[in-house]
């Protein structure tokens, strides 16, 4: 199996595990392994703008305001730390942001200029593959 297939299996399992911890049903999730590796979780409705939890293979997890499809999302808070934190850490981050906790809108370290290391991502996510 090639790196892209292994990465897709691992990412699918990881997104499923995070969604369960956060309380997002499967139909509220999406992920993609293409030129970049990304995931999306629609956060539960609440007063105010619609929020989403997004992940990228270069930045990790962020909570962002959903915008029109033609506009980029507006990041509210970014989860610093490892690129693939345990699902319970992501759930705690989301709960803190939804409770009004302060958030850092950008990663503390800039996104690497090198392309994603798909082999390393596949290894990191491998434990979540079915």
From TrEMBL:
Q: Where is the composition biased (Pro residues)?
A: 104-113
Under the heading InterPro entries, the entry gives: DUF6292
- Please list where the region (Disordered) is annotated: 100-130
Annotated DUF6292 domain ranges read 14-96
* Protein name, entry field: DUF6292 domain-containing protein
Q: Which organism is it from?
A: Saccharothrix longispora
Q: What is the lineage of its organism?
A: Bacteria, Bacillati, Actinomycetota, Actinomycetes, Pseudonocardiales
């Amino acid at each position: 199996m090639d790196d892209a297939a292994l990465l897709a299996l691992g990412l699918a399992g990881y997104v499923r595990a995070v969604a369960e911890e956060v309380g997002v049903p499967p139909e509220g999730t999406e992920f993609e392994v293409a030129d970049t590796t990304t995931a999306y979780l629609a956060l539960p409705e609440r007063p105010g703008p619609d929020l989403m939890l997004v992940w990228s293979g270069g930045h990790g997890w962020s909570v962002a305001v959903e915008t029109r499809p033609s506009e980029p999302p507006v990041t509210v808070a970014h989860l610093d730390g490892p690129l693939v934190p345990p699902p319970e850490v992501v759930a705690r981050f989301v709960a803190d942001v939804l409770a009004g906790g302060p958030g850092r809108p950008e990663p503390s370290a800039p996104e690497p200029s090198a392309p994603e290391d798909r082999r390393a991502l596949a290894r990191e996510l491998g434990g979540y593959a079915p």
